[in-house]
């Protein structure tokens, strides 16, 4: 191997892009925000609010629902997907349409989200998860491009003129982040050869930027309470200035409990079979009832709650109304004016308390560390953090020792913070000092007396030394964000068609002669490059690179002979 004599820069300047778009593909709802790179608009963040539900109301997010045709081509997303799915169900026109709803929730139990993951559609058919994500991303890409075109008045603008940013859960691994990158590539955004057009930001880091920016004089806890559950990330700044993150993901506080308990209430009140039959005949109307419940849940203040019902619901369950009310005390649950389901304050509190109690229990355990005894700043973000009931419960429990901050538009904190991260990255392209050594494992000719005997092996009859750490970038090197450092390698074996490169990090400054098996060397990822053309035997060039992005390190390999490429996101968090 040898170090290539060039350094490549993949981060474009603002002048290359007319806009930056941040896409927040959430568990329950999704949306996007953008900023225009003009003198008048470069400091403004616009949240797209053109999503229109079936009642004509505009919202800043749309349901994370996808409808695909049987051949896996796109049909509809969001409100439109709900409406068309309801139509197909009611008319029985086709049972082959593939409907996905809150599908990210199915991935939360997986530690690693990668190319082998599948998602099950409503009809029971399993589809590759990357196909589902790619179709969702393509939908938002097309919507965002159309939006930017309208704003700047140029029809020629395409996705290549836009800088794209995506969010992923803080708990997702490097492989999971690479999954999102590959889904974006499949959707037509960026490519393995154009790394600088796409950035992946963790939801916690985006929320941190929105809430406090760079002030970490006091530890900050980001509590993201969304459709997938509770995800807590603690940010602390040590004396040397390094920011340390501690993550905690809890799924017991799954916010789907709200929906499950509300459905149980409907079934208990109006009859399980009645509600199930209604769902089959009027799926869109039942979804609207849940949407109305969701809206009321966020504004609940220990008073009677009125949830609007579609006319179809009351007429359908009318013959069951009288006997159903015997399950409740007078005034607990009632129907008013044949259009409102009224729940008393205690009834509503019962529906909501389990999620709040579980989240508070988890946070109390998380904050029980001695070093946090002096208090932290807690920021509640995510869709369910807009619940006034949940906000009040958190303040009641934690305000004595900690500072609890809530937001009216907590569901938009992540997408807005993502835009702020992108802006900060684009405005700061100065070189930085690398805090660790990064490299790969390699083999060299075995030298007796220099290399340990236990590391000796033979490749095509030649004695080699395995497990050597080859440093691509040294600690304290100066690297510019957007820079890619490349090294040229060659296969060990003449007929080798699959070559694996494993990447490592070390805090040691002297790495001229160390092994990847040493205790202070940590594995951070690997890639396998396919090299099908073996006519040149071992005389084949494989270019291995590390790209220093703003929020992640991306490793890649390129087989020069065949043109095959491989890529992965390394398990390293900024600062690098």
UniProtKB/TrEMBL annotation:
Name by which UniProt lists this protein: Heat shock 70 kDa protein 12A
Source organism of this protein record: Pocillopora meandrina
């Amino acid at each position: 191997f040898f170090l290539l004599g060039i350094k490549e820069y993949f981060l474009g300047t603002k002048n290359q892009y007319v806009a930056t778009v941040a896409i927040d593909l959430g568990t329950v709802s999704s949306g996007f925000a953008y900023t225009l790179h003009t003198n008048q608009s470069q400091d403004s963040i616009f949240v797209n609010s053109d999503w229109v539900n079936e009642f004509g109301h505009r919202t800043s997010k749309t349901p994370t629902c996808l409808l695909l045709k049987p051949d896996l081509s796109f049909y509809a997303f969001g409100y439109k997907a709900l409406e068309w799915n309801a139509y197909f169900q009611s008319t029985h026109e086709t049972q082959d349409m593939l409907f996905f709803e809150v599908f990210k929730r199915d991935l939360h139990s997986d530690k690693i989200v990668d190319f082998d993951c599948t998602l099950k559609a409503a009809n029971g058919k399993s589809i590759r998860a990357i196909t589902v994500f790619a179709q969702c991303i393509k939908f938002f890409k097309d919507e965002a491009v159309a939006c930017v075109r309208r704003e700047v008045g140029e029809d020629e603008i395409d996705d290549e003129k836009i800088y794209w940013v995506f969010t992923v859960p803080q708990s997702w691994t490097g492989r999971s982040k690479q999954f999102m990158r590959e889904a974006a590539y499949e959707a037509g955004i960026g490519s393995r050869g154009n790394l600088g057009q796409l950035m992946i930001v963790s939801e916690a880091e985006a929320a941190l930027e929105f809430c406090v920016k760079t002030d970490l004089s006091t530890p900050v806890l980001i509590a993201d309470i969304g459709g997938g559950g509770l995800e807590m990330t603690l940010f602390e700044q040590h004396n040397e200035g390094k920011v340390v993150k501690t993550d905690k993901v809890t799924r017991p506080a799954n916010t789907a409990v709200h929906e499950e308990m509300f459905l149980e209430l409907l079934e208990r009140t109006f009859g399980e079979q009645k509600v199930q039959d209604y769902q089959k005949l009027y799926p869109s109307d039942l979804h609207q009832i849940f949407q109305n419940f969701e809206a009321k849940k966020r504004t609940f203040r220990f008073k009677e709650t009125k949830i609007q019902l579609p006319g179809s619901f009351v007429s359908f369950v009318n013959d069951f109304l009288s006997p159903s009310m015997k399950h409740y005390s007078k005034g607990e649950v009632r129907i008013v004016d044949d259009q409102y389901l009224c729940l008393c304050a205690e009834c509503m509190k019962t529906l909501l308390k389990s999620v709040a109690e579980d989240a508070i229990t988890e946070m109390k355990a998380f904050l029980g560390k001695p070093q946090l005894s002096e208090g932290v700043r807690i920021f509640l973000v995510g869709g369910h953090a807009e619940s006034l009931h949940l906000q009040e419960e958190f303040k009641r429990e934690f305000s004595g020792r900690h500072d609890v901050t809530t937001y009216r538009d907590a569901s938009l904190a992540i997408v807005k913070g993502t835009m702020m991260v992108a802006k900060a990255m684009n405005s700061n392209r100065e070189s930085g000092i690398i805090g660790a050594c990064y490299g790969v494992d390699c083999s060299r000719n075995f030298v007796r007396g220099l290399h340990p005997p236990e590391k000796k092996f033979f490749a095509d009859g030649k004695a080699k030394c395995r497990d050597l750490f080859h440093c691509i970038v040294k600690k304290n090197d100066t690297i510019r964000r957007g820079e890619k450092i490349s090294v040229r390698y060659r296969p060990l074996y003449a007929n080798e068609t699959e070559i694996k490169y494993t990447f490592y990090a070390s805090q040691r400054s002297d790495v001229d002669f160390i092994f990847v098996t040493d205790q202070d060397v940590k594995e951070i990822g690997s890639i396998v490059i396919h090299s099908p053309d073996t006519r040149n035997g071992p005389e084949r060039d494989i270019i291995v690179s590390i790209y220093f992005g703003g929020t992640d390190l991306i490793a890649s390999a390129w087989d020069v002979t065949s043109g095959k490429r491989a890529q992965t996101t390394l398990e390293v968090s900024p600062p690098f």
